[in-house]
Amino acid sequence: MATSGTRTTEEVFADLFGGVVQDPFPLYDELRETGDGVHYSSLLQSHFVTRYADVRRIATDFRTFSSDLFDVTPAGMHDAGDAEHRRFAEIAGRLFMFADPPVHTRIRSTFRAAFTPEAVERWRPAVLDATTALLDEFEPGTEVDLMPRLAADVPVAVIASILGVPREAWGHFRTWSFAYASTFDPMVQGARRDEAIRTSLALFDFLADLAAQRRARPAGDLISTIVHTRTDDGDVLGEVELIAQLALLLVAGNETTTNLIGNGSTLLLDNPGARAEITADPALLPDAIEEMLRIDPPLHLTIRLLTKDATVGGQRLPAGSLVSPCIAAANRDPRVFPDAGRFDLHRGENGKHLAFLHGIHFCVGAALARLEGQVVFEEMLRRHPGFHAGTEPAVRRTLNSVSRGWEKRPVVL
Ligand code: HEM
């Protein structure tokens, strides 16, 4: 189909997924406002869904739109003839994010109590420690790139600390976590994929050892809680299931929270009026974070598999089709958010955005991610209220169409 310009939607997708554009939002607008906002992409081999009502409905109707699709993710497309690949897929394939009820409900029930907003507050000191340790390195008046020096490190340090990973293992843990996350990146192929899988297996072994230690001697950390928590069915997670979920906490929480910090810093730089308001009244920070998550969400795309024929937008799609709900396009749908491209602290629509999705797969770590955002921005604005764009250009990461953020975000403190 042709868009409102003269290009076909496939040409728009080629730009969007080909690493060509820095700013994908005008293309999302174009796709959302063309036809019924649902377009097949031969690159994704999936129907790209852009309107808020359609994305929310797909997330709600988990019986029609299944998450049981690990095998079609890059991490799931392994070499069955290779023993390491097989072992990797056997563990990683148990992620409850890629499961439907009843398996999903049973595993997710072990996380419920540990991740409520009230429970997450107990981790505030750990988040503050991780943040201050990094910010203490920043000299006022110097230029720093926030991405490697702050945004990438806070989430790993926080999750390592709350899981109970001993501090001397944090360096390895960071490397292992990034390697595991990279197995979900379609660009990581061949020898790089073999290496990422081997490193992920080291992470799985490390988590298995730690879990065994905490089973024998609980230590008050998150692993101790999870190994002893009973599921809704009254059992505890099996060994492989457990390792898969612990590793999931890393991949699901690291790059996303990194992007929240990078994207949010950029929005503060680009919106000096809003930033002055927040600096004067830090009580506005929770609203600011919701608006950051709406307007520039860390995770742009997700995926579902149709279990039966269904209508999406105005189109009848057969069972077995893939759909790719685009959170970032939905979050700027003008049918729901007036003047959707404007960063507005007083929108009063908190919780309506889909950055953490909706329904049974709503992000388990949402309260923790919000807490990390609050602590990081509060500390940053308190210590460096005048931070401004650096002399080096900021660069968006363009080759990942699923999670979009900054490669470089230099600032002068
Ligand atoms: C700003 C940061 C974050 C964003 C934007 C985000 C976004 C999301 C989204 C959109 C989903 C749903 C995916 C789908 O079903 O297709 C999700 C699921 C999930 N997230 Fe997050 N996430 C963030 C941080 C975290 C953190 C810090 C953790 C844990 C430490 C975490 C753990 C999870 C888990 C375990 C799931 C699977 C839930 C399920 O399938 O029931 N996330 N997240």
From TrEMBL:
Protein name: Cytochrome P450
Pfam family, any one: p450
Species name: Amycolatopsis ultiminotia
Family: Belongs to the cytochrome P450 family.
Record PANTHER family: P450, PUTATIVE (EUROFUNG)-RELATED
Signal peptide range in chain numbering: none
Highest taxon of source: Bacteria
SUPFAM superfamilies reported in the protein's UniProt record: Cytochrome P450
InterPro entries: Cyt_P450, Cyt_P450_B, Cyt_P450_sf
